[in-house]
Design goal:
Xyl_isomerase-like_sf, L-rhamnose_isomerase, 8-stranded parallel beta sheet, 11% strand, L-rhamnose isomerase activity, two-stranded antiparallel ribbon, 14 helices, metal ion binding, TIM Barrel, binds 6-deoxy-beta-L-fructofuranose, binds manganese (II) ion
Length: 389
Amino acid sequence: MNDRVTHAKQVLASQNIELPSWAFGNSGTRFKVFAQQGVPRDPFEKIADAAQVNAYTGAAGSVALHIPWDKVEDYAALAAHAEALGVRIGTINSNTFQDDDYMLGSVCHPDPAVRRKATAHLLECVDIMDATGSTDLKLWFADGTNYPGQDSIADRQDRLAEVLATVYDRLGDGQRLLLEYKLFEPSFYTTDVPDWGTAYAHCLKLGPKAQVVIDTGHHAPGTNIEFIVAILLREGKLGGFDFNSRFYADDDLMVGSADPFQLFRIMHELASQDVVGPDSGIAYMLDQCHNIEAKIPGQIRSVMNVQEATAKALLVDTEALSAAQASGDVLEANAVLMDAYNTDVRPLLAELRGELGLAADPMRAYAASGYAEAIREDRLGGQAAGWGA
Ligand code: LRH
Ligand code: MN
């Protein structure tokens, strides 16, 4: 057990969970966006808030940007600002879902002029990666149809493939594109990249620089996500995760809050293949909206939830598990896994934080820091950041 704890601490000490800049801005649903005080007004303030999460968890050293929500004059200056705060700019997210021209789609739109406009935006995102030193371009397309007959499913796939190939060819050394799928919303009849199979098929055709992102909120209810993880890992096509959780649809709630056992099962699949660490080539990201809860503590709690699920997965007695699986001892195999899941790993993580010079309880330490009060007082005036929809 001690070797397993030592190994778990080593992996956890190097774990990096990338934060979404948009989680620090105002967000909501079509019914209401409840504005919160002290919310950032620009990407510099978003990164400052993300750096707070890293300061208390030690496990959130990069921030994903979303363009144009995080558009700035000087991306190199933004990258330097991040570095000065002990974090770095990570994944660049494109946005071809908020322009009036994109009502019938963007890269799959029947009008070539609209597809050219969308392509230009995606290529601009690669230019931004060059300026920030980012390696990952994440592509999620809201593209789809609402009624049977609205458009040709096959033609839309051809259009998508053509644009993806153009972007793929633009990627520089060490850069890759991550294709994110989603079952539905905002389209309700077809979505052009609805599932892992469609994303995988496109990435396979594109080449080694194209991989799939699994957003844990983007599946039909009851989908076995860890099975998808195992398959994409096996194919070398698992590029990353957008972690969050949900009770019904794409709720974007705090990861592990709705179904901590599912998160554990996913982390078990990854730990058993030894791809939890930062050099695994898998981008571990959060993609969440804190519609009613405080945003920085919400991100801290989310990072802690991933750490707890990861720690439990790293404590699985893999020898006993393999032996039970090999001998067909179903109950024993399940019991070995449940032992790890039912292990309270909070003392181990508190101890590790102490060893890393961090406070044992990041939530309590942040609350005592006075940062929340300071930004509520300082950030008066200006336009609070949001989805700009
Ligand atoms: C789409 C999505 C995508 C992002 C957006 C913020 O639902 O998951 O990853 O671009 O949320
Ligand atoms: Mn996502």
